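Sequence decides. Our protein:
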Amino acid sequence: MESCRSLRVWAVVATAIGIGAAGCGSSRPTRNARLSGSVEVCQPPLGRCSPLATTVTVLSVHGATPRAAVAKQYARDGRFSFALAPGKYLPSVSGVRGVHGSGCVSSQAVVRAREAAVANVRCSIPRATAQPRLK
């Protein structure tokens, strides 16, 4: 009878250890979704646009408010692509020469697991400002 009781205790302990080990692992979310897009600078009034080499930062969006920066990369040819966890994101650029204030407009994107989403950033510059060049 005593040996059966100790066997049950060991079985419970082994099960608890197995469950605990299954919960262990990386605390980072799985980055199995992709957000891609482009950054363009446009001159009015004709709206001629060209790719813009700049740094793109992706902000996570909670509700309607952009929150924390989750990824950043230099878009050499004006194109970017990020591997992200599923969620809602907003690509952002700053420090674009010739663009002041909120001259860049980007679109939010909902990125789902094992899918790709597209979000573009468009910056407008005044007519008198020279067109930025790709680096």
About this structure: Residues 9-26 have pLDDT under 50 and may be disordered. The radius of gyration is 24 Å. The beta strands are 33-43, 48-51, 54-62, 65-75, 79-84, 87-93, 104-106, 109-111, 116-118, 121-124. The CA atoms of residues 86 and 106 lie 19 Å apart.
